[in-house]
Amino acid sequence: MKKILITGSNGLLGQKLVEKLLPQNYIIVATSKGKDRLNISHPNYIYEELDITNFDALKTSIEKHLPDTIINTAAMTNVDACELNPYDCYMQNTKSVEFIVTILQTLQTNHYIPHFIHLSTDFIFDGTKKMLTEEDIPNPLSVYAKSKLEAETIIQKSHLKKWAIVRTILVYGVPKNEGRTNIVLWIKQSLEQNKQISIVTDQFRTPTLVEDLADGCILIAEKEAIGIFNISGQDYMSIYEMACKVADFFHLNRNLIRPSLSKDIQQPAQRPPMTGLDISKAKSMLGYHPHSFEDGLKIVQEQISQKNQHA
């Protein structure tokens, strides 16, 4: 039975990966900071508290479990917080990856060849091109973006025999248990509370349903795929358009959404204007097929109502 170690299992993607992988024939080692938010009792499920910036703790955990696959979802993803705390950002997003790569390179033999799958971001680009392929040249604009690109470079220059980098974009969905909010939930909750919100009209993305991202990561793990893969939604839209779609779908007042320009919203970190991801490679090589944004919102709606029923 194959063993998959997931870092950041308390996060939105981490939770979904555990949820999807556990019914399959895998042993899951879930690791994260703090208590286990999923609180699962299952013979093939192990949870361990782990700080990815602690080399010795990482080494102990990886050597103990010798996972066939590591899916690294742990990261500091608040872009503005990264800008204000560059050291923490570097440790969590870059140094931790260097640690994992160093440990895996030491353990790697002819008999043990672990597959390292690392989550990266569209933000490594400067936003001057509409749809980005895996071959496009990165040009990061923020501390966060630089930290993620540095991590990619460490992996690509490593001696690991099996690695994959998953670039994704604006992930949304419903965590099973508490977690940080995401753009779709924030828009929905703000409008439900009759709050006026400023949303940019000059930033364009291909928003990604977290279930689709988890499926993409699992396809890479199952196929033992190697290289860089764009895994995102397929609908390209402005963030303002996205907010209006959320308002309309949930029958909320879209007049509360105030169109703004990036320069008018005071944020510490610079965002790239356009970063749609071209997912042709993932479709052809992995058989990846994401939901439409509309169908993604239906899944969000179903999961929210299920949570409310159990509350």
In words, what does this structure look like?
The protein has a single domain (2-180, 208-234, 277-292), classed as 3-Layer(aba) Sandwich (Rossmann fold), CATH 3.40.50.720. The chain is 40% helix and 21% strand. It contains ten helices and 15 strands. It has helices spanning 12-21, 55-65, 79-84, 86-107, 143-156, 183-192, 210-223, 239-249, 280-286, 293-310; strands at residues 2-7, 26-32, 45-49, 69-72, 115-121, 128-132, 162-168, 171-172, 197-200, 204-205, 208-209, 227-230, 237-238, 257-260, 274-277. It has a seven-stranded parallel sheet with strand order 3-2-1-4-5-7-12, with helices on both faces. A two-stranded parallel ribbon has the order 6-15. Helix 1 crosses helix 7 (210-223). It is globular. The mean pLDDT is 96.
